[in-house]
Automatic annotation (TrEMBL):
This is tRNA threonylcarbamoyladenosine biosynthesis protein TsaE. One of its GO terms (molecular function) is ATP binding. GO terms for biological process: tRNA threonylcarbamoyladenosine modification. The keyword ATP-binding applies. The lineage of its organism: Bacteria, Pseudomonadati, Acidobacteriota, Terriglobia, Terriglobales. Pfam families: TsaE (PF02367). GO terms for cellular component: cytoplasm. InterPro entries: P-loop_NTPase, T6A_TsaE. Keywords: ATP-binding, Cytoplasm, Magnesium, Metal-binding, Nucleotide-binding, tRNA processing. PANTHER family: TRNA THREONYLCARBAMOYLADENOSINE BIOSYNTHESIS PROTEIN TSAE. Belongs to the TsaE family. The keyword Magnesium applies. It comes from Granulicella pectinivorans. It is found in: Cytoplasm. Gene3D superfamilies: P-loop containing nucleotide triphosphate hydrolases.
Length: 149
């Protein structure tokens, strides 16, 4: 179902922040709902820091893991970034309480969901997915982004 893809590599936290900047425009053009996949420590939240900074929605320091808070909202001038982490959610019912459908109705929204692949409804609705995996070296990360043109 994806028609476009891109693979990128980084060897440091700063490199991942830079990748966030590189992919921010692709994500904006792809749509509003982005699934961010990868194991714990893969660099998902780090990537969102880079995206947020590039979009002018938040500083890198402001973006912290929403694992316990579930949703962080960053209203920027051009883009309102909704940063979610659904790792702790179990059911579609719990997911529904977050109001992702309402977020996506915001014309300036970019909604990025860490662990979104857990929920078929989110995979169905997603405009792009970003997959982060560990590379061969300790600080190396591979990024695979897929979207529909
Ligand atoms: P996630 O949200 O996927 O659990 P985080 O971004 O919160 O991951 O954390 C990534 C961890 O991996 C941090 O402790 C960071 O220091 C470390 N790390 C090492 N190399 C990288 C890299 N290239 N990119 C991102 N994080 C890295
Ligand atoms: Mg995270």
């Amino acid at each position: 179902e994806w028609t476009r893809e891109k693979r990128l590599k980084t060897r440091s936290v700063n490199g991942t922040l830079g990748l966030g900047e590189m992919v921010s425009e692709i994500l904006r053009s792809a749509g509003k709902l982005i699934i961010l996949r990868g194991d714990l420590g893969a660099g998902k939240t780090t990537l969102v820091k880079g995206i947020a900074a590039a979009l002018g929605a938040a500083t890198e320091e402001d973006v912290v893991s929403p694992t316990f808070t579930l949703v962080h909202t960053f209203p920027g001038r051009k883009v309102t970034l909704y940063h979610l982490d659904v790792y702790r959610l179990e059911t579609e019912r719990e997911l529904a309480t977050l109001g992702i459908e309402e977020m996506v109705e915001d014309p300036n929204a970019l909604v990025i969901v860490e662990w979104g692949e857990k929920f078929p409804s989110l995979m169905e609705a997603a405009d792009a997915e970003v997959i982060l995996t560990q590379g061969e070296l300790e600080n190396e990360r591979l990024l695979h982004i897929r979207w529909r043109a």
